[in-house]
Amino acid sequence: MSAFPGSPRLLRGGIVLTDATTGAVLRIIALQYNPDTLTRSLQIKGVGQDGGDHVEALRLKGPPVETIKVEVEIDATDAMEADDAKTNDAGLHPQLAALETIVHPRSSALLAANAQASAGSLEIAPALAPLPLFVFGPKRIVPVRITELSITEEAFDAHLNPMRARVSLGMRVLTVDDLGFEAKGGNLFMTYLRAKEQLAAGSAAGSFATLGINGIP
Fold it and tell me: Model's pTM, two decimal places?
């Protein structure tokens, strides 16, 4: 059955993995279903938070620490009905693995580090992971670090492949304090911040009458 021609195209949220150095897109992971809720928390980085000089009370040291948490559902039912060969063979393993490998160093990087250690190297640099971008519509494209990944598998086929799963995904927004102004990720954060400022400018202004006062005494 075709969709109603007048219905809007539904956008999906997702994660775009980019090369941390060049900014080249490495992989796009689209969410099967958009989460019903998205929780964000902002921890302000103020100078005068611990008391002291009153002059510093309103100064901000940098962008707040913003965390994002979403609950994502993945279901293999539609793919099974379409007799998808990959789903019939592996269930949701590929989709779950695509998310899990974001937080794993690549096996080649681990082997290379082990080879350096075996050769007597005293200082081995940790592997540089791709930079994830959390995309939730055109107005929210932001560099993040995955801080939490929890997976609950709820149904299995005859071969114990997961067929339904819930994924809890926690992220911390990476700012110019983390990435610098010159990096691609830093530029993306600044674009994200400017978009917030533009949206705030379009918000309707209140009035003293709305607050039940005539002005500030």
Answer: 0.87
